[in-house]
Amino acid sequence: MSPWRMTRWDRGHPLPATDPDSGPAEHSTGAGEPDRRHEALVSVRLGPSAPGSHLVEYLRHEPCAVAAWWIAADVDAVVRLSADSMTVLHRAVADLRRRAGVEVTVAHHILRALDLTDPAEPRTAQDTRAWAAPAA
Question: What is the value of pTM for the model shown?
Fold first, then answer.
């Protein structure tokens, strides 16, 4: 199958209720491994021949598209993509360029969320986690 016409199942996701080894809520990570999603925020600018409705229709059928916003700035929209692997995430960004007819101005890969809760007590150097974790 052409990589440009890959579905979510061609990209490594099993068909719903057909994977006999895992329950409906389980993922393909090993035992004791955290469920890791790779995400990116992609800023896009509509091309001269790509109407906004074409982008919206494309994103409705893109399995990696999680959310999108119209932006009043030098870009037209920001798209949030999420995938199980970096390879699939890179493919989703490339597909956005090639198939949605938009210019991808910048793609920001999300490392992890910031903890915005107010700590109950001050942390010591021993309590703080390193900001960089080994890649899974």
Answer: 0.60
